[in-house]
Amino acid sequence: MLNPSFPSSAYFHVPFCQHRCGYCDFTLVAQKDHLIEAYLNAMAEQTAKLGEGIELKTLFLGGGTPTHLSIDQLSRLFETIFSHFRLAEEYEFSIEANPLNLSTEKIDFLKQSGVNRVSLGVQSFDSDILTFLERDHRSDQIFEIVKSLQSRISNTSLDLIFAVPGQSLDGWKQTLQTAVQLNVPHLSTYGLTIEKGTSFWSREKAGFFDLPQDELAGDMYEFALEFLEEAGLKHYEISNFARPGYECRHNEVYWTGYPYYGFGPGAASYLDGVRRQNHRSVITWLKKVQAGESPIADQETLAPEERAREAIIFGLRRRAGINRREFQERYGFDLHQLAETAIQTNVEAGLLEETDTHLKLTSAGCLLADSVVVDFL
């Protein structure tokens, strides 16, 4: 059972990649492996003031591409982590991975190190889509990699992207059918968004491509809801589907408002009611840590009402929605007292559903979740 006062989750950001894909706006550097040594030293420095033996129920390494690091480099990072943290008896230790980084030797090393969940950036099984997304693996390589991975670490998740220029509804259906045939217990599906500052942003503005119409993107999303549910993958969060017992426990910590540690450039933490975010620039983060200065770029102490409203926004991402009684007990506010107009407007619009116990998004509401949650700010 998670405790709202004592963090038992930690996130470590590994900001290295071989290539920055055109749609990616995450905190990372590509072709900068000469910085890995400094990064590993800085991670040891950033965690130096922690105690020892802090128990974690969930541990997540994201990026970037954590598996871009060599086995020796990963070993050093794990040594830093486990000099301060230890895994609870029933733990989840996740790592994000790029398919071509996963040699048999590296998979074996990850398993021996305690990793028991891998999130694999597959994105598509269509060669043309993979080329457009600037991925470095071929569709025919994925099957052997997933098979090798699952024979060692069965809790494997695949990331998939839809609403890509040139992608048809039939093409998306084929991608989902292929993913289901691989028999993985977890899938994440994300509609392609073009973020300012990415190369795709510049290319779209220059008219090199157009995103699919909203209606087609909506059809793709709705097909995923129906098809994956029929395949035994329950829709438990707006973008995530899992077989029973394989929901990502670490992400549930974020969505349910529990505290967590965050280390590395761009990483966020939520401790003692204070949200902090480290500098997104890898170089700035390194310089701050090396100089013995705080790497934190922003921090905010949330007032009780702010915490409650944030809990609504995160809680509505979960398909189970928000338990009204538990919400009031935890945050001290009645949902209707806090957001009567927002609830009424979105229920009448068919975007929210209210029962005697819960408030949750409808299927239509999932498609428009970003506009729904704005009403609760």
UniProtKB/TrEMBL annotation:
It is found in: Cytoplasm. Gene3D superfamilies: tm_1862 like domain. GO terms for molecular function: 4 iron, 4 sulfur cluster binding; coproporphyrinogen oxidase activity; metal ion binding. GO terms for cellular component: cytoplasm. The keyword Nucleotide-binding does not apply. SUPFAM superfamilies: Radical SAM enzymes (SSF102114). Its main location: cytoplasm. GO terms for biological process: porphyrin-containing compound biosynthetic process. InterPro entries: Coproporphyrinogen-III_oxidase (IPR034505), Elp3/MiaA/NifB-like_rSAM (IPR006638), HemN_C (IPR010723), HemW-like (IPR004559), rSAM (IPR007197), rSAM_horseshoe (IPR023404), rSAM_sf (IPR058240). Keywords: 4Fe-4S, Chaperone, Cytoplasm, Heme, Iron, Iron-sulfur, Metal-binding, Oxidoreductase, S-adenosyl-L-methionine. Residues 2-234 form the Radical SAM core domain. PANTHER family: COPROPORPHYRINIGEN III OXIDASE, RADICAL S-ADENOSYL METHIONINE DOMAIN-CONTAINING PROTEIN 1, MITOCHONDRIAL. Probably acts as a heme chaperone, transferring heme to an unknown acceptor. Binds one molecule of heme per monomer, possibly covalently. Binds 1 [4Fe-4S] cluster. The cluster is coordinated with 3 cysteines and an exchangeable S-adenosyl-L-methionine. Belongs to the anaerobic coproporphyrinogen-III oxidase family. HemW subfamily. This is Heme chaperone HemW. It comes from Gimesia algae.
